[in-house]
Amino acid sequence: MKRKGCEDDEAFKLLQLSKEDPAEASGDPEEEELIIADYESDDESKTKNKFCVAEDDEDDDLVEEHVTKIYYCSRTHSQLAQFVHEVQKSPFSQEISLVTLGSRQNLCINEEVRRLGSIQRINDRCLELQKNKQEKQHHEEGVKRKRGPAKSVCPYHGAAALQQLRDEVLGKVHDIERLLTLGRETHACPYYATRFAVPPAQLVVLPYQMVLHEATRRAAGVQLKGQVVLIIDEAHNLSDTLSCIHSTELSGVELCRAHSQLTQYSERYKSRLKAKNLMYVKQILFVLEGLVRALGGKVGQNPQSQTTQPGTDLLTINNFLFKAQIDNINLFKVLQRYFEKSKISRKLCGFMEKYGGTGVTPHVQTSSNKENRCTDGLNRYLQTLQSSQSTTPADQKGSAELEKVVSASPMMHVEGFLMALTNSNTDGRVVVHRQGTLADSSVKFLLLNPAVHFAQVLKECRAVIIAGGTMQPVSDFKQELLFSAGVGEERITEFSCGHVIPPENILPIVLCSGPSGQELDFTFQNRDAPHMMDETGRILSNICNVVPGGVVCFFPSYEYSRRIISHWEASGALARLSNKKKIFMEPKKASQVEQVLSEFSRCIQRCAVAGGGLSGALLFSVVGGKMSEGINFSDDLGRCVVMVGMPYPNIKSPELQEKMSYLDKHLPHSGGRSPGQALIENLCMKAVNQSIGRAIRHRGDYAAIVLCDRRYSRPSTLSKLPNWIKDQTNTHTTFGPAFAALRKFFMDKRQKQP
């Protein structure tokens, strides 16, 4: 009853507001900002612009010309920082002008804005402050301003200060931390100063999404056409990143709230909105009703109380539009023109902030699947990067704030979903998940062809360098992202080189059986057998006897990790392991990763100093988890990496099955296997390569790699390992010779130490 009461209170509050006479508030500048401006169609704009050519030409003269430059992009800010530090150490650091771009969340120094936490709220507040500044300038120039209290402006946006910081940025190579310090010293915004520095810069360092997402690329001032050498590092993530950025999901809750909020908005301002605006608002409401109808629900009712028939449907875009009965709506016109020009999503967000409180209702907070009801693809990707790197309570608070914004202003995410539906019918699918109630149900756009969004980048650039340490297999990468984007074979040049370490510093072993002779076959049917789990425990026990420092053991999934560790606790194997090395486990929360890694490192350092007794530490982790990418287990932190089984993805996933079906239909078959089968194998081995690549991080480092599963011995599987690992790999059908090789490897290293 409390939940229902809160919903009724919010609805009543908005209803009362809609009955007020908007004319009474016409003198309120905040109220004026919520009104959609007069909308002009493209034809009307073209007619009007015929008489504005001279003015546009003058503006073009003020735009600074871009010099020929290199864009270097990678997945995370930490990877970009590593690159910048390498540039600083190079002989080119004194000769090159380098600019590092980042989001407002990373570069803002206005504490009032930073404390908002979420990406969306920081962006909105920053834009609002810039608008206030423009209005203040107009007022100072004699333009009459509407009555009302003076609005705050950002104190870090002075022209002279920005110019000074821009010159500082171009004069010396700086990382993001130094940019923030310089911004505070010069009282200038690093976010805008770095963007002003892009045209004359020779090297621009930026995260993936600023290159791969067209709208973000435009906003950042990134120009690729005809002059750019683009280096994309960590490129094994490229296909998944493109798919993630351009995929999006909406819950039934978000759809119902968007419809309710837009209805209240149009009711309140119907006397002040032009007929054309009201027409488009009605079309958006009609589309929202159709999306809710596709989930088996109705608007105007509590989504938590509406039951739906559980099930999952995979539909083409056209079939989904037909199912939702919105196939007669010109989505491109409604979306790209009206949403962009009217800024209705931002207007609605401001309306809710002013009149609807936080807009977070209890049924949103208690939804069991709320974590999966993400924002649009780009914001979800940005939030993923944040959660993978953030470890402080403030970051957790920011994540909570984002959930509030998602619930309060879902129209922005509706806008992203409708944009996704403008993709070609063959390039994507719509997944309709019905979970028993409308609130828990969702509709998701799944991008099947990432090449369609990469094609423009490839077309505009003079050259593109795609680099990574775990790019194998290259042939499948070329087929999915290059050939499918229209790139001819003659334009592609491949280059591969070995690792910086000498061959004797690595010992890769494929282990086909354990100490008792049990064959290692971690297929789904066999891996839960008690004798398989016992044999795995014996293997780890033997490894811990001869490997100094840290051992990192990767399991194929969180669920299997939980089951095998529970089995070892019951059998006593875990206690025996803990007598050899102190045991650490990958935490469930990203905020705890740094703490676990610090304790793991300190334990190894203490054992190395003390000697005797415990010999280092054993860390249990998960492939694809928080410690399988972006974490460096160098030197004693990772003297041995153990891979238990093969981490194949869930073949029963409807999304994965649809992706396989798409590849089988559109890509050529080769080597006696279908492209869909190749996708499954490649996803598995790319995950393996990322995990085992956590060890051996510099020229003098050394480590052993133990692959525990007979299936690793297959030639087709071995071929997917990086060459510098594959060339040194030995397959052992019995445990004895493998253990002898492992013991000799570390004895030799110990003897060579000074």
From TrEMBL:
One of its GO terms (molecular function) is DNA helicase activity. PROSITE patterns: HELICASE_ATP_BIND_2. InterPro entries: ATP-dep_Helicase_C, DinG/Rad3-like, Helic_SF1/SF2_ATP-bd_DinG/Rad3, Helicase-like_DEXD_c2, P-loop_NTPase, RAD3-like_helicase_DEAD, Rad3/Chl1-like. Its main location: nucleus. One of its GO terms (biological process) is nucleobase-containing compound metabolic process. CDD domains: SF2_C_XPD (cd18788). It comes from the Eukaryota. It is found in: Nucleus. Its cofactor is [4Fe-4S] cluster. Residues 1-285 form the Helicase ATP-binding domain. It holds the Pfam family Helicase_C_2. One of its GO terms (cellular component) is nucleus. Keywords: ATP-binding, DNA-binding, Helicase, Hydrolase, Iron, Iron-sulfur, Isomerase, Metal-binding, Nucleotide-binding, Nucleus, RNA-binding. Belongs to the DEAD box helicase family. DEAH subfamily. DDX11/CHL1 sub-subfamily. This is DEAD/H (Asp-Glu-Ala-Asp/His) box helicase 11. It comes from Myripristis murdjan.
